[in-house]
Amino acid sequence: MPTTPYPFVSGEVLLASDLNAIQNLPLNDQTDSYTLEVADAYKRIVMNKATATTLTVNNSIFTAGDVIQVMNKGAGTMTVTAGAGVTINTASSLAVAQYGGGTLVALSASVFNFFSPSGSSYGIASGGSSSSISVGGVSYTLLTFTSDANLVVSKAGLFDVLMFGGGGAGGFSQSNVGAGGGGAGGYVQQTVYLDATTFAVDIGAGGSATTTTGTAGFITSLGTTARSMAVLFGGPGYNNAGGAGTSVAERSGGCGGGGGNVITAGGNSFMPTITGFGGGTGPAGANNGGGGGGGVTAVGGNGVTSTGGAGGAGYDVSTFIGAGSPLYKGGGGGGGGTVGGAGGSSVGGAGGSNAAGTAAGANTGSGGGGAGLTSTFSGGAGGSGICYVRFRT
Description:
393 residues, mainly beta, Jelly Rolls, five-stranded antiparallel β-sheet, six-stranded mixed β-sheet
């Protein structure tokens, strides 16, 4: 079938074949990045390159109502790119994977809408521990990363990502001072577009705790270049004899560590109510309990006389990973005291009851428990982080 000579010009005689071919638009094949021209209105632009390309839309080239069809034939991702002074709106993505496509519609000389069902399709990847899950009747492949590894994206597209930073350690105690619980690592849950390449996954370690110091956790990250993600560490609990955690700033992080009975205030969350919450306070004076560390969904509890505060609540990841029962991550550590505070959502370390604080579980992103009263005790270590990546199958 011949291509239509659309747009038609004044005085042209149309044949039946012209009318029958009204949808058979001319193709403009490109083997590298390309900038649209005025003659591309009502054409189909076909990009065909094994590596990434851009399709640039400049200002004052098209008029309101012009339509340009685009498709990506090559293995490299094609990204529709706005030139200077141009705005391109879309409900999906301007990055189009192989065999995807879409429609550019000019609303004015400088504003366009890009309609691309293919732009919102999920990609394919491997790495970590792979399993098949179902969430709301939709089938996914779930990749779980519990240690440093690589996410290898073989098909560019969307991916759902949920990850937690390493939790902070609980504070140590001496001289009848109850210590604060460690804050949980922060968390993030997003749907992101990833190119077909390899992304390093770095799982943040939990903070370590001894009788001389206590430390914050470490950042969990996905990738180190464009479209990378990272989530903050948890702050350590209060340590009364010096070292990390002796100021509010030092106890801050994704979630804040709990306060003690000399420096009573809990640490802050760097992103309050978004990725984590602050730690609880410890009442001033000797023989009092420490505050609970902040969790990813709630603040740490305050210490009450000699009883440590409970750790802040964590987040139930069961829906995201298709688990059949609740599974919490990111709970704050309990404050230490004569009676130690409970760890948040049963995943944060419990505060010591005249004893050492309890460590948080590995790959929970939770805070360790603060040490109890009476003698020199260590706080509990924070839990390492975790990263989940899923895509539809």
